[in-house]
């Protein structure tokens, strides 16, 4: 079913070297409306990298210092190396999103009539290898914190699951580099299942929590990674606004169902894991409130992009709004990583 990006063998894929120097290369997601000649395109070519760099720096700072800030004044136990763990988890979640997005988004592209016969470069191999390195880094950190050797760490529950995640992502990278990239679906499914089990070591209904996480993580990865792939493709198709608009419309219809899945599983997970009396006094509760606020921003941007897409034949404004949605989704990924690091809020609820 999934067979990678729909490129025409007779037409070479556009490379960065074939793009004029005044235009950002594929993947930087500039404004698809183009621009007048002169200094404006040059300014735009600098604006996108600067904004991406600023967003990346902000995400790194949130990951490093977010767990400590959220736990300040709660009386909860300090998690050793929480900032570094959050960074590694963020890389892992981003890798899943990028790879899953590249597997699913091309299925939205194929039915688009009049689409250009070009495809964006694949980032799946690099993404999965980065995710594998992040999982390996978590194993090393776990060994250092627990005082165990690497081999002994593999024997622990968390260490064994992290090893499975790392190996699964390596296999996914090998599949992505092969002629059958769709085979990566199997190891990626194993990775998601292992991460769901790792995230729920608690004694109260861990199987139910893991099942919710499988659905939630899959939907979040498809939303984030799929949107990125669609935006990159729209930039590549900037000379075919009708096809670009049709592609964004197809993604928007898929995103509705992903949003429903995220809302349902997120609500169930919250009711299951977060006691109401510690919503504002636990790191988990505070982080969840921040995530909900960011998701509200994402929802507004997504609705605005859909409205402009339905109203305008030129998809430039909708593309711009969707790019902003993508940036906020990136912050949601970081905050979600923090949620997996902060302490379980149940113990603070049970304190006398």
UniProtKB/TrEMBL annotation:
The chain crosses the membrane at residues 50-70, 82-101, 122-140, 160-177, 182-199, 211-231, 251-271, 283-305, 326-343. Residues 246-339 form the Copper resistance protein D domain. InterPro entries: CopC/D (IPR032694), Cu-R_CopD_dom (IPR008457). It is a multi-pass membrane protein. It is found in: Cell membrane. GO terms for cellular component: plasma membrane. Keywords: Cell membrane, Membrane, Transmembrane, Transmembrane helix. The keyword Transmembrane helix applies. One of its GO terms (biological process) is copper ion transport. Residues 1-40 are annotated as: Disordered. This is CopD family protein.
